[in-house]
Automatic annotation (TrEMBL):
It comes from the Bacteria. GO terms for biological process: carboxylic acid metabolic process. It is an enzyme of class 2 (transferase). GO terms for molecular function: acyltransferase activity, acyl groups converted into alkyl on transfer. PROSITE patterns: AIPM_HOMOCIT_SYNTH_1, AIPM_HOMOCIT_SYNTH_2, PYR_CT. Keywords: Acyltransferase, Transferase. Its EC number is 2.3.3.19. Belongs to the alpha-IPM synthase/homocitrate synthase family. SUPFAM superfamilies: Aldolase. It comes from Capillimicrobium parvum. Residues 30-283 form the Pyruvate carboxyltransferase domain. The keyword Transferase applies. This is 2-phosphonomethylmalate synthase.
Length: 403
């Protein structure tokens, strides 16, 4: 059964498919290629231990992720050891690791036992000039040589011409045409390295790359510098991308990467495209990565944040009590969450009564003065500068009796 079947669980805009009638949405849904253990750890301040990497890999694999990008073995012996440990765990998932476009890095990746090497070679003129001093005329030759070297050693090749969204179109098309002719690459990554592209740009590039490569699968890897990581990834999927690169909680360099939980929920709920992820596990896996990374989620983080399904406003809660979809687009249980009513400055009598019912497990006590309690709640919330915790509300309830 599709995860969204079985009762009213969603209520989204009927306009979501507008303008997409001529798109390239794939007959087979795209797969998720998660890079929490590689790009996620590149966020300043994050250092995963080997054991934490194994735990995260196990949890993410259990979600239904197709491809785990396990790290960059050249970074440190610990990284290489973690990759080997995950591979040895036998999680039943496709595995890959990142390497620079050198024979030595390919050999190191191969020694870790993964299925594929992700060959990283900057393609934009800016990146090549600053990092490689690699002329455009030599780029395709080097890419083919290293890809061929990796294939000869039994590795699948996922080529990552990073800074794709700021590169020269002629060079990108020449690269993909060469890959098509030589048959030495299994997948090509569209990398929005600095998050500098719009959703329209990503969609257009997916189409261009698909045409130039003759159907070589395209993976989109989007950074979140403008807060568009999820939007760009979804746009790529709707344009025909075969793989979606994400991280749990959107962790990653600078402003992070496309958030797995946001991307897969948007695909499932907004477009009805099941990418094979167990949505009900999302919140639990998010918590594992939050603890291991030490990066605390903002309370209003979409999908998995503590307040993603929390409601305080009196007007909002009044409607919510009659029909939850007046305030929510999908049921919180779908992603392993639960709905919460909180009380504070903007609460109304109906929402306060509902919260009291929740706390006492039935009708409010006959001697409880709800109007006086509401006045007290608002005053206490103003003094505290926040909503009230359940224990604080219970304490106020004991002082607001009739009579």
């Amino acid at each position: 059964m599709n995860q969204l079947e079985g009762g009213d669980r969603t209520a989204v805009s009927p306009w979501n498919w507008s303008g997409l009638e001529g798109g390239r949405v794939r007959a087979r849904p795209p797969r998720v290629a998660d890079c929490t253990l590689r790009d996620g750890e590149q966020q300043p301040g994050i250092v995963f231990t080997v054991d934490q990497k194994v735990e995260i890999a196990r949890a993410v694999a259990a979600l239904g992720v197709h491809d785990l990008e396990l790290g960059t073995p050249a970074v440190s012996p610990d990284d290489a050891e973690a990759i080997r440990r995950v591979v040895d765990a036998g999680l039943g998932v496709y595995t890959s690791a990142l390497g620079r476009a050198t024979e030595a890095d390919v050999d190191l990746v191969r020694s870790c036992g993964v299925d594929a090497v992700r060959l990283s070679l900057p393609i934009s003129e800016r990146q090549r000039a600053a990092k490689m001093r690699l002329p455009a005329g030599e780029y395709v030759e080097r890419a083919l040589r290293i890809a061929g070297y990796a294939k000869e050693r039994g590795l699948d090749v996922i080529f990552s011409p990073y800074d794709t969204t700021r590169c020269d179109r002629t060079l990108l098309e020449a690269l993909l045409d060469a890959f098509r002719r030589e048959g030495c690459v299994d997948r090509v990554r569209l990398v929005d390295t600095t998050g500098a592209a719009s959703p329209q740009a990503v969609a257009a590039l997916v189409g261009l790359m698909d045409d130039a490569g003759g159907g070589i699968p395209i993976e989109v890897h989007c950074h979140n510098d403008f807060g568009l990581g999820t939007a760009n990834t979804v746009a790529g999927a709707l344009a025909g991308a075969a793989y979606l690169s994400t991280t749990i909680n959107g962790i990653g360099e600078r402003s992070g990467n496309a958030s797995l939980e946001e991307v897969v929920t948007a695909m499932a709920v907004l477009y009805g495209i099941d990418v094979g992820i167990d949505l009900a596990r999302l919140t639990a896996v998010s918590a594992i990565v939050e603890t291991a990374s030490g990066v605390r989620l903002q309370p209003h983080k979409a999908v998995v944040g503590r307040n993603a399904f929390a409601h305080e406003s009196g007007l909002v809660v009044a409607g919510l009590l009659r029909d939850p979809f007046t305030a929510e687009a999908y049921a919180p249980e779908l992603v392993g969450q639960r709905r919460r009513i909180v009380v504070g400055k903007t609460s109304g009598r109906a929402s306060l009564e509902a919260k009291v019912r929740e706390l006492v497990g039935g009708d409010p006590p006959d001697d409880l003065d709800l109007d006086a309690l509401l006045t007290g709640v608002k005053a206490a919330a103003i003094d505290a500068g926040r909503s009230l915790e359940d224990d604080e509300l219970r304490a106020l309830m004991t002082t607001r009796s009739k009579g």
